[in-house]
From TrEMBL, chain A:
This is Pyridoxamine 5'-phosphate oxidase family protein. It comes from the Bacteria. NCBIfam families: PPOX_FMN_DR2398. InterPro entries: Pyridox_Oxase_FMN-dep, Pyridox_Oxase_N, Split_barrel_FMN-bd. Pfam families: PNPOx_N. Residues 39-160 form the Pyridoxamine 5'-phosphate oxidase N-terminal domain. Signal peptide: none annotated.
Length: 214, 310
């Protein structure tokens, strides 16, 4: 892959902030006006119907991480107009997000509602908690999470739908794309230096494990 | 599941709303009797059981009432905050695990949101011309739901407010029953536990019976969650249920998908015939060695083998 850049015969020019602004221009005041610091009625309704979000966090060394969270719609539970709680469900225990939050207390959330082209962005301060009251509210299918992330909102805004429209993200027919990607078991096997047969075995095992989600 | 639409929402008390569901084309709904409940699945896919509290004679409407749980796990919060007239829900047809049996007279006892099945029972007994008394326990007068409907029955309904009347002596109430009284009661766990304890203490006069509907799991000591074996006689599958997995999930992993709803041993949706083996019944529906069924969402057989008729 690295060969492709070399084939250009020159180094990439890095554009600095001034040049970015010169290229894109300045956003209209309306773009800023849409940004608030709390969740209004419409945002509450958005989150109540959202089963999926991506969490962006940053570690003490500045290294970033972005990871998916999905659950029953409304799993990002609003505690008040400036506070939400997110359950930590069964995972691989790497806990990248939690580790980053414990180190820096920063988070960016991008929430989706299937079929809706706009997404809700929430940026703010986060902490990890094991408060029994919060955890009790996040029980699902008889399973209470061990930990939850509590977020104090600083920026809340609805992101326009062009990205999802361009992607055709909610078009069922776009799912034929997945047929062209190797199954997860093979990807994991390859990345772990194992052969395809082991990958297929991993795939079968994970298929069974996926039946226990809570 | 029946696709239904919310046709009205009425605030009954600061913490209870009643919700009427209808078929979008006003089609007739499956019939039911007092004590029946439906499983309601919200658009969020949260599924919960609610006793029907409307009029069984009205074949076009189901009415339920939803209390906002202090620490809502999602559903009651959703119903109170986001459900609106026109919202779509999916409903499993009514099932009745709390049917009125024959008796000379009836005492209905409701605590809090437990009024819902009792309202339907009072209506049915009234229609049949049978003698009943309804005792309705609330923390204070503001928590009385369906007050206008209860008023129809005059002094056959007695509201007991903890704030003004103090604590009701449930054991004393049971001890003082006329012979031949059937007691039907529904309320939170502490209320049900108090009634069960009084019954176990032998206070019920001869010829009286106590029937409880629980909407919270019975808290009980259980054996450790050891692994056990399940033989599915009809599908010829044998599987192991490991300590960290329920029988319901293990069956699903083996390709046997059962309908399930509460997953807490309360609703009875996942019931399966138990052909052989000693189950440790952990449900709140009263399954025992004689009932011939087991609820795989909670029950186990530590170290043993269960043969199921599936």
């Amino acid at each position: 892959m690295s060969g492709a850049l070399e084939a250009f015969g020159h180094e990439l020019h890095e554009v600095d902030l001034a040049e970015i602004r010169a290229t894109l221009g300045t956003p209209a005041q309306g773009a800023f006006d849409k940004i608030t610091d709390h969740l209004d009625e419409n945002c509450l309704r958005f989150l109540a119907h959202s089963p999926f979000c991506c969490l962006a966090t940053v570690g003490a060394d500045g290294a970033c991480d972005c990871s998916p969270r999905g659950d029953y719609p409304g799993f990002v539970r609003v505690l008040d107009e400036r506070t939400v709680a997110i359950p930590d469900r069964v995972g691989n225990k790497l806990a990248d997000s939690m580790q980053n939050i414990a180190a820096t207390g920063r988070i960016g959330i991008l929430s989706f509602v299937p079929g809706m082209t706009e997404t809700l962005r929430i940026n703010g301060r986060a902490m990890v908690t094991n408060d029994p009251t919060v955890l009790a509210m996040l029980e699902q299918d008889h399973s209470v999470p061990d930990l939850a992330i509590v977020v104090r909102t600083e920026q809340v805004y609805l992101h326009c739908g062009r990205a999802i429209l361009r992607a055709g993200l909610w078009d069922a027919e776009m799912q034929d794309l997945a047929d062209e990607v190797p199954p997860a078991g093979r990807i994991w096997a390859s990345m772990s230096g194992l052969d395809e047969e082991v990958g297929d075995e991993i795939g079968r095992g994970v298929g069974l494990a996926y039946r226990k989600l809570y | 599941m029946l696709p239904l639409v919310v046709s009205s929402i009425d605030r009954q008390t600061p913490s209870i709303v009643s919700v009427v569901l209808e078929h979008p084309d006003r089609e007739q709904l499956p019939d039911w009797k007092a004590g029946a409940h439906i499983d309601v699945q919200l658009v969020t896919r949260h599924e919960r059981q609610y006793s029907l509290c409307g009029d069984p004679a009205d074949a076009r409407r189901y009415r339920i009432a939803v209390s906002r749980a202090e620490l809502s796990r999602g559903a009651s919060h959703y119903v109170h905050e986001f459900l609106r007239v026109g919202s779509r829900v999916h409903v499993r047809p009514p099932r009745n695990l709390f049917e009125l049996g024959p008796a000379e007279r009836y005492l209905l006892v409701a605590a809090g949101i437990g009024i819902t099945p009792m309202l339907a029972m009072a209506r049915e007994l009234d229609a049949r011309g049978e003698p009943f008394t309804l005792v309705y326990l609330v923390r204070d007068e503001s928590e009385v739901a369906f007050g206008d409907e209860l008023a129809e029955w005059g002094d056959r309904v007695r509201v007991h407010s903890g704030a003004s009347d103090g604590r009701l002596d449930l054991a004393g109430m049971l001890a003082g029953l006329d012979p031949g009284t059937a007691v039907y009661a529904c309320g939170p766990a502490r209320f049900s536990d108090a009634l069960s304890a009084a019954e176990a203490g032998g206070v019920l006069p001869a010829g009286c019976s106590l029937h409880l509907e629980r909407f919270e799991p019975v808290q009980r000591e259980t054996l450790p969650d050891e692994a056990f074996t399940v033989v599915c006689a009809e599908s010829d599958i044998t599987l192991q249920v490991y300590p960290d997995t329920s029988m319901l999930v293990a069956l699903s992993q083996a390709g046997i998908e059962l309908p399930a709803s509460c997953r807490r041993g309360v609703c009875g949706t996942c019931v399966v015939p138990l052909l052989d083996g000693a189950a440790e019944h952990r449900d709140s529906l009263g399954a025992d060695a004689a009932s011939g069924v087991v609820y795989p969402c909670v029950s186990r057989a530590p170290g043993g083998t269960l043969t199921l008729g599936i």
